[in-house]
Design goal:
Layout lengths: L13 E3 L5 E3 L5 H9 L7 E5 L6 H12 L2 E4 L3 H4 L10 E5 L7 H14 L2 E6 L11 H7 L4 E3 L5 H14 L6 H10 L4 H18 L5 H9 L1
Parallel strand pairs: 3-6, 3-7, 4-5, 5-6
Antiparallel strand pairs: 1-2
């Protein structure tokens, strides 16, 4: 295993999100970033950002909130607050997790008020709108008018950067060989990267071994 620090995997542009966090931007985010950069000249009242679990939806929502001044609210909380939204003078609003059993009538009325007042709505979801099981036809028809900006499958540069950071956060020294092995053998998902690194850390500590390609192979096979 080489002890040389990994340089190429960190060569990614980033954008700041609320809380001082940075969000790495790669090719898989191109569609989403295009829509964020096009605000406030959206051709529709809302845009739906679709990404799998741990796919960056929260970072994207916070990024948009920072650039637009939008408030951020979970869709599940709208039943109690929707009548007060959007706030007077607001130009945008972020509603997260519209696929997680939200109050559909509240979303329907919020959409209508936002459209009438020219407020841009950024929705986030784990699945595309047609796949969300909705009961209220009026809300479904409104939602399906929104363009969808999907986060694509993580590419090598993004996955390598994520893996390098996850290992670094656990103070585990790895080289290019270890990263390259994972890129070609593990599931291409951020959640999978987190699970693999956590198990590698546990196994290396228990067996008093370094994180090597051999150890990573054992992790993936288990």
């Amino acid at each position: 295993m080489t002890d040389a620090p990994i340089q190429y995997v960190l060569d990614l542009p980033h954008r700041a999100a609320q809380g001082g966090e940075d969000f790495w931007v790669s090719d898989c985010h191109a569609a989403v970033m295009a829509w964020l950069d096009a605000w406030p000249e959206w051709p529709a009242p809302g845009v739906v950002v679709v990404a799998p679990p741990r796919g960056g939806k929260t970072h994207i929502a916070r990024m948009f909130a920072q650039m637009s001044g939008a408030a951020v609210i979970a869709a599940a909380d709208l039943a109690e607050t929707a009548q007060r939204l959007p706030e007077a003078g607001a130009r945008a609003l972020v509603v997260e997790d519209i696929d997680r059993d939200p109050p559909e009538e509240a979303l329907f009325h919020l959409f209508n008020r936002a459209r009438e007042s020219g407020v841009g709505l950024l929705f986030t979801s784990r699945v595309a709108p047609p796949a969300i099981p909705l009961k209220l036809a009026d809300w479904r028809s409104r939602l399906l008018t929104c363009p969808v900006a999907a986060v694509g499958r993580p590419d090598d540069r993004l996955m390598a950067a994520v893996l390098a950071k996850l290992f670094h956060d656990r103070q585990l020294l790895v080289g290019e060989a270890e990263i390259a092995y994972l890129l070609t053998h593990m599931d291409r998902a951020i959640a999978s990267a987190e699970a693999v690194v956590a198990e590698a850390d546990r196994r290396a500590l228990a067996l008093k071994r370094k994180v090597s390609v051999a150890l990573l192979k054992e992790v993936l096979e288990s």
